[in-house]
Amino acid sequence: MKGLKRVLAVLLVVSLGAMVGCGDDGSKANNANNSNNANNSNNTNNANNTNNETPVTGATLIKNLSAAQVQALCDADNAAYASIYDPSTPAGRGYCKVSGIYDAVLGAGVEDDEASIAAVCQEIYDDCVADEAEDLEFCFDPVGQAACEATIAEFEACAVADISAERARWAAYDSASCVDDTTADGYLEFDENFDEGDEIAACETLYEKCPDLY
Questions:
Q1: pLDDT band at 13 (very low <50, low <70, confident <90, very high)
Q2: Which candidate, 164, 139, 144, places its Cα nearest to that of 206?
């Protein structure tokens, strides 16, 4: 379910928002993504117009989406989900900090002291924030999509809630410390309190109706 939850975090947050008339949401109100969001919406609308396909509405069943519509949604999904890890944002920096802490501590040898572990953590963090967000290539499993009885409205409700939660979860680690959280005691506390994310109530219907979507 983790893989499904990850991808659902962004599907349709932008691409279907304009099509089903949804208002702006806190998880979408990121000025840095406005141009990408517009492009994603255009891509989806273009897919809808290909070969006179039936326009997508909130009542459209996911299983009834055409191949072109699915691809447009997946393209928008991948761009939107990758934006969570944009290192210019608190969520992106938080993800980089968590990566640095875990990689440095778990990769340390018996000869490494606290100072060297902290230095490795900082190096990993610096490299991470210097990189661009990676491209993602998730998409529906054809068999799973063909059996998916959820509507676009149910799908989007899950996506909006999940992406908002993911942004907030990673952003909370923007203030984590490579010095304090890689010591023996600091790491134990950090690891014990690490937030792996909760199940999203708004996604329960989608999970039930589309268990094999990915």
A1: very low
A2: 144
